[in-house]
């Protein structure tokens, strides 16, 4: 082996150590703990091996299925809205318009705001007593009484989705914009000469050519949305009555708040498996990008 090759392997050792310490070890340790009954309250007694009992318990856990139902609904609705609105914003940012720099900056501002800060902002705006949203709606006479944005089970779900769409649509817009800018302008000019309308141009030129980028963008957002924790923790803490409790939030509550480390590890493992299955749904799209 040449000295240059040895030096190359030497340089990647720190990265491998970090990958093992921050990714591989936590994953395998979580999987290991999921087979034990292990609680903070009885930690001095050690771990008790229970096999698959924690996983069997999950399939009889009503709170788990309620959290899973909300997480799937939240993911489908939020990502769909982010994709549609993101596509609109990306097309606007892709045009040569006066003040385009200001337009792009304005679109990307929500994404630049930290999620915790964003959650606190929306929590204040959603307040039933002094929130700006209810104040404006009442002034414009859209409503007769203040909407309980975060205390009604149905409305709270809508409120969380709106906050997430506002926060992450710019990210989707930016990824779609990168795809739009790879399309040669000559294709649009040729289509215009042939008499194609905007709908045909979008469906037969734009959409097929940005499909690889769009697939990756949707995959990233689906996985991130499915694992959402921080925004919901700040806005509703999973309430009211666990109506907005995501799988990640339920897992963390079980692990840290309730001190049930073994069952929390099993929940984390199941969440990981579901995320992996979701990733496989996009495998064909990702293959088309690589081929």
Provide a descriptive summary of the structure in words.
This protein has helices at 3-33, 53-58, 62-93, 100-112, 115-126, 132-139, 153-180, 185-193, 198-226, 230-235, 247-257, 261-281, 283-290; strands at residues 36-37, 48-49. It is built from 13 helices and two strands. The chain has a single domain, classed as Orthogonal Bundle (MetI-like fold), CATH 1.10.3720.10. Helices cover 74% and strands 1% of the residues.
Q: Quick recap of the structure?
A:
With 291 residues, this protein is mainly alpha-helical. It contains 13 helices and two strands. It has a single domain, classed as MetI-like (MetI-like fold, Orthogonal Bundle), CATH 1.10.3720.
CATH architectural grouping: Orthogonal Bundle
Q: Return the CATH topology.
A: MetI-like fold
Topology order in helix (H) and strand (E) letters: HEEHHHHHHHHHHHH
Q: Which percent bin holds the helix content? A: over 70%
């Amino acid at each position: 082996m040449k000295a240059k090759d040895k030096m190359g392997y030497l340089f990647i050792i720190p990265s491998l150590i970090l990958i093992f310490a921050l990714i591989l070890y936590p994953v395998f340790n979580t999987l290991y703990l999921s087979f034990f009954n292990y609680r903070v309250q009885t930690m001095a007694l050690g771990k008790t091996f229970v096999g698959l009992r924690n996983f069997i318990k999950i399939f009889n856990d009503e709170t788990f299925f309620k959290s899973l139902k909300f997480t799937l609904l939240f993911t489908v609705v939020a990502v769909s809205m982010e994709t549609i609105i993101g596509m609109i914003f990306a097309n606007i940012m892709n045009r040569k318009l006066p003040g385009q720099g200001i337009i792009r900056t304005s679109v990307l501002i929500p994404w630049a705001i930290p999620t915790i800060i964003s959650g606190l902002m929306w929590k204040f705006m959603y307040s039933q007593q002094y929130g700006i949203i209810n104040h404006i709606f009442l002034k414009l006479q859209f409503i007769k009484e203040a909407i309980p944005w975060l205390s009604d089970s149905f409305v709270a779900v809508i409120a969380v989705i709106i906050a997430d769409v506002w926060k992450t649509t710019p990210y989707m817009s930016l990824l779609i914009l990168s795809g739009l800018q790879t399309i040669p302008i000559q294709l649009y000019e040729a289509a215009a000469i042939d008499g194609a309308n905007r709908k045909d141009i979008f469906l037969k030129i734009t959409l097929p050519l940005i499909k690889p980028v769009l697939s990756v963008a949707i995959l990233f957002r689906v996985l991130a949305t499915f694992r959402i924790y921080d925004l919901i923790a700040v806005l509703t803490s999973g309430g009211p009555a666990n109506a907005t409790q995501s799988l990640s939030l339920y897992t963390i509550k079980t692990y840290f708040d309730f001190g049930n480390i073994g069952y929390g590890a099993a929940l984390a493992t199941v969440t990981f498996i579901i995320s992996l299955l979701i990733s496989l749904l996009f495998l064909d799209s990702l293959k088309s990008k690589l081929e």
